Amino acid sequence: MTTEQEQPKGESGDEPYLESSGGVVYRLRAGRVQVALVQTQRGAWVLPKGAVERGEAPDSAAIREVLEETGIKSDVQEDLGEIRYEVRPDLWTGFVPKIVHQYLLLAKGGSIRPDPAEHVEARWVSVEDALRLLHHANERTVMVRAEESLRRLVPDGMTA
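-> structure tokens emitted (160 positions)
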């Protein structure tokens, strides 16, 4: 989500862009894989993510943002690539490119809850439900990538 602290980046001469990081957080519950989703104040279900701070590595930002947005402590397991799109940070700025680094993260602790400043709900769902609930097509693509990785990493947790 674009926040007040998210500032356009870019090398001198490069086009400015916004940079976020987050991804697919998963856990095993009763032998089944579940993933964490958050619901925006506008009702859209999305993957947890947020701004990469100046000097912060994208994978570290993903861990921090997942904790801030869901209350879940996690570790990065795999890089799921990037998604790119354009956002309008405010009413006075034109559209700016945004890069979102996506990771597969294993939940290590904490209790799921939304960040009330940004989200109304956070919940664990099956991968199948996540594919159905995710609002943005590019995040559904990331979930498909995660599903492929999860079938390799925890095959017993991905069976029906």
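Strands lie at 18-29, 32-40, 45-46, 49-51, 72-87, 96-110, 119-126.
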